[in-house]
Amino acid sequence: MLIFPDGGIPEGAGGGGGFGGGAGPSPESIPAEFGNRLGRVTIDKTVPQLKKFAEEGGAIVAFGGSANIGRHMGLPVSDHLVEMTSAGVERALPRDKYYIPGSLLKVAVDNTNPLAYGFEKQVDVMFDNSPVMHLGPAAAMNGIKPVAWFASKETLRSGWAWGQHYLEDGVAAASATVGKGKVFMLGPEITFRAQPHGTFKFLFNGIYYGTSVPAGGSTNTNMQ
């Protein structure tokens, strides 16, 4: 089981692996006996190994900015918060159209999915310009299921949300079967300060579900 909190997976091709994608300490400042633990998560080198880890039966929980791991793995998952320019080029929504920092938003939940065990049909999530996913047409046949999503144009519960209508139908949390393993992608800040009282179960459900096995088997892919 691997857990990547916000900042654990870089947004682009550059290395990350620390909160905010910082460069981390210099090799010279690390005692020699700990040198082999120093490194950076990168899209080119690390993500293919993470995909292999999942395909061979491993489980990954990625939340906050790290939820972009599905897109980096080549799964049929893309950014929901985009628009087409007049030149026919897709781009991220600009700040003058969309900006939601540090607010509480409402999402609908499929509580029949093991990742959402114990939830009601709706839950408030901490959202800080968090990733919002679009599942492509091939998602279902590739074992990717929406677990939480923005079901309306008005989802704000507390704070402020400029352009919140763009969230409608965007996926906040998804569960993916990758080979013999699982990858759980959770865009909102599910462990942020006091907010875990509402959403911490996503993390622990992911840990239990991702590492579970059927009574007579050695894989979790048939668990319902």
Which range does the strand content fall in? 25-35%
Total count of strands: 12
Q: Report the sheet with the most strands, covering strand number, pairing sense and barrel closure.
A: 8 strands, mixed
Distance between the termini: 19 Å
Number of helical regions: 3
Portion of residues in helices? 10-25%
**Overall mean confidence score, pLDDT:** 89
- Tell me the overall shape: globular
Unreliable stretches, pLDDT < 50, 5 or more residues?
14-21, 219-224
Radius of gyration: 18 Å
Structural class category? alpha+beta
Order of helices and strands: EHEHEEEEEEEEEEH
Q: Topology of this protein?
A:
Layout lengths: L1 E3 L41 H10 L3 E5 L5 H4 L4 E3 L2 E3 L5 E3 L10 E7 L12 E6 L5 E3 L8 E6 L6 E3 L12 E8 L2 E6 L9 H15 L14
Parallel strand pairs: 1-2, 2-12
Antiparallel strand pairs: 3-8, 4-5, 6-7, 6-9, 6-10, 9-11, 11-12
Describe this protein's structure.
With 224 residues, this protein is α+β, with helices and mostly antiparallel strands. Residues 14-21 and 219-224 have low confidence and may be disordered. The longest helix is centred in the C-terminal third of the chain and has 15 residues, at 196-210. The two termini are 19 Å apart. The strands form 3 sheets. Strands 1, 2, 6, 7, 9, 10, 11 and 12 form an 8-stranded mixed β-sheet that branches. It is built from 3 helices and 12 strands. Helices cover 13% and strands 25% of the residues. The chain has helices at 46-55, 69-72, 196-210, and strands spanning 2-4, 59-63, 77-79, 82-84, 90-92, 103-109, 122-127, 133-135, 144-149, 156-158, 171-178, 181-186. The chain is globular, with a radius of gyration of 18 Å.
